[in-house]
Amino acid sequence: MPATPEYDAPRDDRGHPSPTPAGEAADEVIRWGAFSCALVPVVLLACGSPFGAAAGAALGLAAVTAVCRTLLRRYERTAARLAGTVVSPHRGRHGRTGIGAHRGGRRG
Fold first, then answer.
1. Of the candidates 22, 41, 49, 79, which lies 20 to 30 Å from 73 by C-alpha distance?
2. 38 φ/ψ angles, rounded to the nearest 5 degrees
3. Cα–Cα nearest to 57, from 39, 77, 75, 84
4. SS3 for 27?
5. Record keywords: Transmembrane included (predicted)?
6. pLDDT by residue (tens digit) across 79-94?
7. What is the dihedral of CA 47, 62, 26, 24, to 10 degrees?
8. pTM of the full structure
9. What SS3 class is residue 17?
């Protein structure tokens, strides 16, 4: 019977693991956040808001985007770490299972 190859996660050009679908979604959220950081001040200026208000909005959006990016990356690392750990099933009070695992008893 031929041996089955061990599964290896897909990697990008630099040898890093490819992002998971959740990681790709997080990247897209960050891209939209960065886009809004640039677009909102332009729209505010076009609508006649003062430069200070547009700059303040840009800085506020940039701060929120940076915090969201940090939290998303932390969540991804935690999820990857938890997915990598295998939880063994509970084996009972003393870790013995199955017939013959008990001490004592009758012997033939």
1. 41
2. -90, -35
3. 39
4. helix
5. yes
6. 888 877 756 566 666 6
7. 80
8. 0.54
9. strand
